[in-house]
Write a structure and sequence with these properties.
Number of helices: 3
Oligomer: single chain
Strand content: under 5%
Helix content: over 70%
Distance between the termini: 79 Å
């Protein structure tokens, strides 16, 4: 009976590996295929032409920065909550620290994205002034 269990387990492992390899191959081939217009901007994208267009674009990036700052704050708060729940020596301590580290990394990433959005907004305001 022990030999039968080994055969069943080995068969399951082989099937899992085969399906994983097939899935990876499918994903790789899907990533390699490009639509003919991938290098062109979509038709709904328009470059700002006037001071009003640049001002509107800047406002959109300012709004995006505010939203990203809000998400960053939320993740920072979650990180603090996870850290506060980590009782030294408990079984969950490692899990809470892992979650806290994850949230801190996300918060930092969102803060950086918000800073970039603010810089982009300022660039649009500057271009609007020069009439670029």
């Amino acid at each position: 009976m022990n030999r039968y269990k080994q055969i069943v387990l080995a068969s399951g492992l082989v099937a899992t590996l085969a399906s994983s390899a097939l899935a990876l191959t499918s994903m790789a081939s899907a990533a390699d295929t490009k639509a003919p217009n991938d290098t062109k901007m979509s038709s709904d994208m328009k470059m700002p032409q006037s001071v009003a267009d640049y001002t509107a674009a800047a406002a959109k990036y300012d709004q995006e920065a505010a939203e990203l700052d809000s998400v960053a704050k939320r993740h920072a708060e979650m990180a603090a909550l996870y850290r506060s729940r980590a009782i030294p020596g408990s079984k969950q301590q490692t899990a809470y620290f892992t979650l806290a580290n994850h949230c801190e990394k996300l918060a930092e990433s969102y803060r950086k994205a918000a800073a970039e959005a603010r810089m982009t907004a300022q660039s649009h305001r500057d271009m609007g002034k020069t009439g670029a």
